[in-house]
Amino acid sequence: MRLNADRDRCVGAGACASTVPAVFEQDEEEGLVRLVTDRPESALVGVVRRAVSMCPAQAIRVSSE
Amino acid sequence: MTEMAIQETAAEYPAFPMQRADPLGPPELYAELREREPISRIRMSVTGQEAWLVTRYDHYRELIRDPRVSADMYADNYPRQIPVPLELLRSVPRTIFHLDAPDHTVHRRLLTPEFTYRRIEGMRERTQQIADEYVDRLLEKGGPVDLMAELSLPMPSQAMCELLGIPPADRHIYHEWITLLIGTDTTPEQHAQAEITVVGHLEKLIAQKTEHPEDDLLSRLIARNNEEKLVSDRDVLNLARSLIAGSHETSANMITLSVLALLRNPEQLALLKADPSLDASAADEMLRYFSVSDAGTSRVVLEDIELGDVVLRKGEGVVASILAANHDPEVFTDPGRIDITRSPNNHVAFGTGIHQCIGHLVVKMQLGIVLGTLFRRIPDLRLAIDLDDVKFKNAAIRGVEALPVTW
Ligand code: HEM
Ligand code: SF4
């Protein structure tokens, strides 16, 4: 799984960072999404998918490579 | 002619908000509509406006994330629940709730650094302290007490005022304002007067904090805006106003309703008392079950949108019901059952899309802490009156007027 986060779309409410802090965080200046890693370990794939689906702004994209 | 004809048809549509047989559960008609006609017509009881009602979870998310809907409350057909004439409403500038992109984005970005996961987690200790102080006071006082007045209203309000930097002596001004703002029997005069008082107070506060910044959200907001001049001073005032307006009744009612629900579900309450690690998921389940801001995601359509089997036409109003979406059995197994261990619990109590509640992490943390603390420190807490005698509030935000409890 490979992740891509679009900070222009992000509305910064932190759903992703609160769900999987090991993968998503928010920077201090703008409060917008940053990836801790763009290749989450396989144990986290399920919960990452849930975070992606719950992102209100559809700011996180998943590709399979 | 048509005006009469239209009014007659509209009169046949179900009135919104709808009746409930069980005051804690959703209106029974939601389930029926979701089955039979998931996107249906309603009439707003306060204003008489016609609108669409969306009752399915998948439709809800699709619609609220669609950039072709607008949150502009001042559009003619935006479904409203306040009895204040549109002209008077329009005299107050739109707050973040009712702006569309790209204006919305500018306002939102001023707030986002204040509500990151890390920042909110940083408030956990202080939140616990505040909760403990309120429970101390309940214990000192002894039952029976009105939980709404002694905990549910003042506690989140104190937390929000501390965050913003509003001095304790002035907090009642905001309380009175919100009560009027969301009441369905507020007169236009009362509404206007309350606005003047709040705006006057915030203007003074902002002037003070511009001169003498302190370590609070409002000071940082002012400083951030003065660096880049993203919005007007009036907009900064409005952002502060939105935070107060968005947080006050919603949080208070969630605390009170959750206490009621837990008392009615002793086996769930026993789970919570025994296991503090359930505080967070209990909060989520209460937020899902009650969805107090049911019509919080009302919209008006900017371009024709196909949704399910219907076409929502440009200019029409829609209530995308949060409560109905959160009780959709396709997504939530046995939705009428309160299960504080429900997982996953992808509810939309805070909406979705660009307006998703900026305070949602604050709420989840605070509600979990308050419920856990209250019931673990006062395990014998119980209602001091019959459930039948609890008076539910006739306002846009679901709640009760008072909740006498004892122990
Ligand atoms: C139980 C508590 C709460 C519930 C159920 C709730 C619910 C909601 C909902 C449904 C929306 C979306 C409105 C829309 O899409 O049009 C929203 C937006 C908002 N909420 Fe909350 N809220 C709660 C508490 C809070 C708190 C504590 C704060 C402040 C920290 C807050 C601040 C806001 C703001 C500023 C918005 C507008 C965001 C925007 O338009 O971008 N809310 N809330
Ligand atoms: S959930 Fe989406 S909108 Fe929210 S912070 Fe993460 S990326 Fe941004």
Automatic annotation (TrEMBL), chain A:
The keyword Iron-sulfur applies. Keywords: 3Fe-4S, Electron transport, Iron, Iron-sulfur, Metal-binding, Transport. Residues 1-29 form the 4Fe-4S ferredoxin-type domain. Its cofactor is [3Fe-4S] cluster. It comes from the Bacteria. InterPro entries: 3Fe4S_ferredoxin, 4Fe4S_Fe-S-bd, Fe-S_cluster_ET. Ferredoxins are iron-sulfur proteins that transfer electrons in a wide variety of metabolic reactions. This is Ferredoxin.
